[in-house]
C-alpha cells in the first residue's frame, strides 16, 4: 500500500518547485541587484524607472531576508559577524523513537551511513545490518518501558546528544468511533512519548549544556480536520511543548546551546498514511503536494548540521496553516473544502501501529 514514486516532470511539477526557482531569482537579493546595475552600466540614470523601481524592490526583499536572518541569529544567540560551529558528527549519539519504519528508519540509515552512532527505540525491530545502529525494544507511551530502555542506552552506548522524537500513530476514526484504547494509544505515542523520552534523557544534555532535540509534529497541529480529532490534538500538544521547552531551556536551565527543532510537515508518503485520499484534480496536486520521506530527512539533517533551533515546515503550503484560523470563517471554510481535508480519511485503513486486538490489516489478507 506504500505510495509509488513518480518520475515524469508533470508529476513532480508543483508550487514547491516554482517557489524554489523564484527564491533563487525574483526573490533573491543577489539576482535582483544585477538588474539596476545592468541598466546603470548601459548609461541609465538612477532616477530612470528601469533603475529606480528595481532598486526599491531590491531594498524591500533585502530587508525581508535581513529581518529573517536577524531573527534566526537572535534565537540562537549568535553573533552578527560569526557563524555557529558545524556539528562534529563523530562525537554524536542520535536517539530516534519510531526508528524502525518510515521517516525514522530512513533517518537512522542515513546517519549510520555517515558512521554516526544511532540508537533506535521502537516496539518493532529495525531491519538493518549496520553496526552503527543499536536497537532497543521500547514502548515510548509507557514511562517504565522508556525508563528501562534509557538505563540500558546510557550504560551500553552513552548519553544521547541528539534526540529525535519521531514515533507516531494515527487511528483515522470519527470521534464516537474512537475507543478508549485508540485515544490512549494516540496520545501515549504522539504526545506522552515525547515527554517520557525527554524526562529520561534531557538530564544528560543539561549536564553537558549542549545537544539538540527534534520534535516531529504535523501541520495538522495548527488546523482542525474531520476524522483526525485525536491525532490533530496530540500534534497540537507537541507544538505547544516545543515552544515551552525552548523558554524553559533558555530561562530556567540556562542552556541555550541545547537546540530545539520543530518539524511540521504536510502529508508524507509513508505507509502510515498510505490509504489517505485527496482530490484527484491537477490544481490540488500542484498547490498541495505530498512530501517524500527523503525531503524530511534532508531538512532534519541540515538543521542538526547547523546546530541551530528552527521550525521546519514543508511543503510550501504548510507555512500558511498557522494563520488560517485568523481568516474570516467563510474564507477558511472555502480553503478547507478545496483541500478535501475533511473527507481524505473516509477510506482510511490503519496500517502501522496496530495493536494485538486490532489484528492484521484486512484480516491478514
From TrEMBL:
The keyword Oxidoreductase applies. Residues 92-271 form the Ketoreductase domain. The chain crosses the membrane at residues 17-39, 51-67. It is found in: Membrane. Its main location: membrane. One of its GO terms (cellular component) is membrane. InterPro entries: KR_dom (IPR057326), NAD(P)-bd_dom_sf (IPR036291), Sc_DH/Rdtase_CS (IPR020904), SDR_fam (IPR002347). GO terms for molecular function: all-trans-retinol dehydrogenase (NADP+) activity. It comes from the Eukaryota. The keyword Transmembrane helix applies. It is a multi-pass membrane protein. Belongs to the short-chain dehydrogenases/reductases (SDR) family. This is Short-chain dehydrogenase/reductase 3. It comes from Amanita thiersii Skay4041.
